[in-house]
Amino acid sequence: MRKLILPFLVLAFSVVAAPQDRLPAAPAPFRHGYYLFLSDPPIACEQCYVPLLLTAAPLEEIAKDPAGQDCDLITTYERDSVYLHNGILHVGPSDVAAAPRTIRVRKRNYRYQEITAAEVLHLLEHPLGTIPVSRPFLHSDLPPGPSPDALIAGFRAVK
């Protein structure tokens, strides 16, 4: 029994006492918000559901970063309310064209427009908006993103 406990304690202590440079870094908080406006021909009422992309760095910097960046994707209804928290989406440098301000997300082409932290906060703090719309439960195929409270805290720090 002691032979099993001692190696476990040594391993546990070494993890707790590990130098900071070996611990995984926490992801940077999202500080930038972009509405994505569909450039491709719409399917049904697709233009009513405007994606909101939250990023830690400006999209222009992501376009230059060979590794790209994980971003949080939220679907809004008419930019008035949160329809679906889609989750984490990886955006690579080949997805962003900074000069024409275009981005490719989930096999669709969009123009992007940055919005202020105050606009993002308003949407996150009032997710039901003012336009009545049915919000059926939809399952996202993306990994979950930060909670609305964590997003609100991050954007309050920008304000």
Describe what you observe in this structure.
With 159 residues, the protein is an alpha+beta fold. The protein has one domain (25-129, 140-148). 25% of the residues lie in helices and 30% in strands. It has helices spanning 2-16, 59-62, 117-125, 148-158; strands spanning 32-38, 49-55, 69-77, 81-91, 96-97, 102-105, 108-115. A seven-stranded antiparallel sheet has the order 4-3-2-1-7-6-5. The protein is globular and about 40 Å long.
Largest sheet: 7 strands, antiparallel
Class of secondary structure makeup: alpha+beta
Name the overall outline.
globular
Rg over alpha carbons: 20 Å
> How many DSSP helices?
4
Oligomer: single chain
Percent helix = 10-25%
Q: Numbering strands along the chain, what is their spatial order in the largest sheet? A: 4-3-2-1-7-6-5
Average pLDDT, rounded to a whole number, is 85
Our count of domains comes out at: 1
Strand content: 25-35%
Instruction: Point out poorly predicted stretches.
Output: 4-24
Order of helices and strands: HEEHEEEEEHH
SS elements, strand count = 7
Span of the ends, CA to CA:
56 Å
